[in-house]
Design brief:
With 414 residues, the protein is an alpha/beta fold. It has helices spanning 2-8, 23-31, 48-59, 87-99, 117-126, 146-151, 165-171, 177-182, 184-197, 201-205, 208-231, 236-248, 256-263, 267-279, 293-298, 321-335, 373-381, 409-412; strands at 37-41, 68-72, 105-109, 132-137, 155-159, 253-254, 283-286, 301-305, 339-344, 348-355, 358-364, 389-394, 399-401, 404-408. Helix 17 (373-381) links the parallel strand 11 and strand 12. The mean pLDDT is 94.
């Protein structure tokens, strides 16, 4: 264990290097002085561990490095503690023996790897053993069930996503609207890369030749660790076939019964499997916009991927720029924290956004032309409810069509 802890706690020797700043970091920094447990949730490899390292670097300015402990519980070494949360006490004792310092700040990464961890965390919180406890998890069930019961009122939660378009622009020193326009060819290349390869940090930095291999390894880890293991799915073959089908038919309308017929599973299994995919943050399920919650629940739905990268694993999908852009728009809206719906009845509208009491209607069209303009505009103008803004998001077109604004993706999400 000593060797594992030494290897995981590089900050005992020097601060962490080569980390990208994230917008959410400042919000997390404000919470450090609050005793509540800080929970970071999100899809695996989205940058939760890097945010921990950014926070540790900041703490190093004011506290001894030895009083900060980071533990990645996803490390194979800790499998021996999978059903023994008391082993966390042993980890703390070993760290304090190594550093000869009392641990004040505890960072537990991928904490769901230890069954019953919430009892340990509650005990440590109530006894005020640490100044601050930070945890991450790659499954939404982290904040449900016993955790929610035991730790109600004791934690602050924050959703973490892969890099946003705006964050990637700033990594490339494009931080003003003037620079955005001056560097437009570079900006469009960034949009192209996000449409094709998504925005996981490791994928963003990798050569194109190995990006698909990295994406495939992420998918396998999410599939088996965050879906199958966490939910106890037994029909792995059927689950995998459904996942592949959904990835290849993203952004299309579906019902549980229609999917069940296609993949030859029961309606109940399909619903459970989609729930598992959503719990791992791989997919997000959108409801039809309606003021009736009953209607939202009973009508057909749409699925989107949290990150465009996984489309590289689908069947003959890479050249469908319309769907690639639509999924990318969804992922950026999700990163902004918007409440997202779609509308598909008399007319179709890709996204209905609820933001601070206002409704915004958004159509996504890779290239607006004489063949599709009327359809896209009518989808916005003929909605049977009032909206405050009507927008068509394109790859690189800008114009005004009366009540409808046509805006390029790169400008809207700058």
């Amino acid at each position: 264990m000593r060797n594992v802890l030494i290897s995981q706690n590089g900050h005992w020797q020097k601060p962490y290097q080569n980390l990208y700043s994230r917008k959410v970091f400042e919000l997390l920094l404000e919470n450090v002085s609050v005793r509540h447990i800080q929970v970071l949730q999100g899809i695996r490899r989205s940058g939760k561990s890097s945010l921990f390292k950014l926070l540790i670097n900041q703490l190093l300015h004011s506290v001894d490095a030895g009083s900060i402990l980071y533990v990645n519980l996803d490390d194979p070494f800790f499998i021996q503690y999978a059903n023994n949360p008391a082993g966390l006490y042993e980890i703390i004792q070993t760290a304090e023996t190594l550093t000869q310092k009392k641990i004040q700040y505890l960072f537990l990464d991928e904490v769901q790897a230890i069954s019953g961890w919430e009892k340990y965390v509650k005990s440590m919180y109530d006894s005020e053993l640490f100044k601050k406890i930070f945890i991450t998890g790659s499954n939404s069930s982290l904040l449900s069930g016993e955790f929610a019961t035991l730790l109600t009122g004791r934690y602050l939660s924050r959703q973490i996503y892969p890099l946003s378009f705006n964050e990637i622009l700033r990594i490339n020193d494009i931080d003003t609207f003037m620079r955005l326009n001056e560097e437009l060819p570079k900006v469009l290349k960034i949009v192209d890369d996000m449409m094709t390869y998504g925005s996981f940090v490791e994928v963003y930095n990798a050569p194109d030749a190995i990006k698909r291999e990295i994406i495939s390894s992420y998918y396998e880890a999410i599939f088996f660790k965050d879906c199958v293991a966490n939910t106890g799915i037994r029909d792995i073959k059927g689950f995998k076939e459904l996942s592949f089908y959904l990835t290849s038919n993203i952004v299309t309308l579906f019902s549980y019964s229609s999917l069940a017929r296609v993949v030859k599973l029961s309606d109940v299994s399909v619903k459970d499997y989609i729930y598992a995919l959503g719990s791992s943050y791989l997919f997000s399920e959108l409801n039809q916009f309606s003021y009736s919650l009953k209607e939202q629940a009973s009508t057909k739905k749409k699925l989107y991927l949290t990150d465009n990268s996984f489309m590289k694993l689908s069947f003959c999908f890479s050249n469908n720029y319309g769907k690639l852009l639509e999924n990318l728009v969804f992922s950026e809206l999700q990163k902004r924290g918007d409440e997202i719906f779609f509308y598909n009845k008399e007319n179709e509208c890709d996204f209905i956004i609820k933001n601070e009491g206002k409704l915004i209607a958004i159509q996504v069209c890779y290239e607006l032309n004489e063949h599709n303009q009327a359809r896209e505009v009518n989808g916005l103008l003929k909605l049977p409810f009032e909206v405050h803004e009507r927008v068509i998001l394109t790859y690189n077109q800008s114009m005004s069509l009366g009540e409808v604004s046509v805006v390029p993706f790169w400008e809207y999400f700058f």
